[in-house]
From TrEMBL:
Encoding gene, per UniProt annotation: LDHD_0
Region listing for Disordered, in residue ranges: 1-22
Biased composition (Basic and acidic residues): 12-21
Record-annotated FAD-binding PCMH-type domain positions: 23-141
Lineage: Eukaryota, Metazoa, Chordata, Craniata, Vertebrata
Name of this chain's protein: Putative D-lactate dehydrogenase, mitochondrial
Record-linked PANTHER family: D-LACTATE DEHYDROGENASE, D-LACTATE DEHYDROGENASE, MITOCHONDRIAL-RELATED
Organism: Eudyptes filholi (Southern rockhopper penguin)
Length: 141
């Protein structure tokens, strides 16, 4: 619905470029799913209608990966920001894709672990790369 979907040009342009030098290529619409089930439903709908899907994390990429060169729907995953599970025993963490490095480090503050900037995937700081980064950060102490 309304607060989770936008076709406003300013919003589309914001989601149609990253930090690269590529020209902005805005999507046709931007959606903000808030649960895995919503992502699955949206992806199925896009598949059935043959509409391109463009994932959007933080917009800090350097390759133009968020440019919707063939139009489509941008999935902005920033509202999916739950830190679901932390295992201190094996230095792993399960996060939703909208969790940032800063938010994770705030959550980890009292554990002795951290997620370092130099880790692969640190700018987007999500999913598997984040879990690997926590382990890497601990090993470097």
């Amino acid at each position: 619905g309304g607060p989770n979907v936008s076709t406003a040009m300013a919003v589309r342009e914001q989601h149609g470029h990253d930090e690269s030098m590529h020209t902005c290529a805005p999507p046709d619409a931007v959606v903000w799913p808030q649960a895995v089930g919503q992502v699955q439903e949206l992806a199925a709908l896009c598949y059935r209608c043959r509409v391109p899907m463009v994932p959007f994390g933080t917009g800090t990429g350097l390759e133009g990966g968020v440019n919707a060169v063939q139009g489509g729907i941008c999935f902005d995953l920033s509202r999916m920001d739950t830190i679901a599970e932390l295992s201190l025993e094996d230095f792993s963490v399960a996060v939703e894709p909208g969790v940032t490095r800063k938010a994770l480090n705030s959550h980890l503050r009292d554990t002795g672990l951290w997620f370092p900037v130099g880790t692969v995937g640190a700018s987007a700081a999500s999913g598997e790369a984040m879990a690997l980064g926590v382990a890497w950060g601990q090993e470097q102490r």
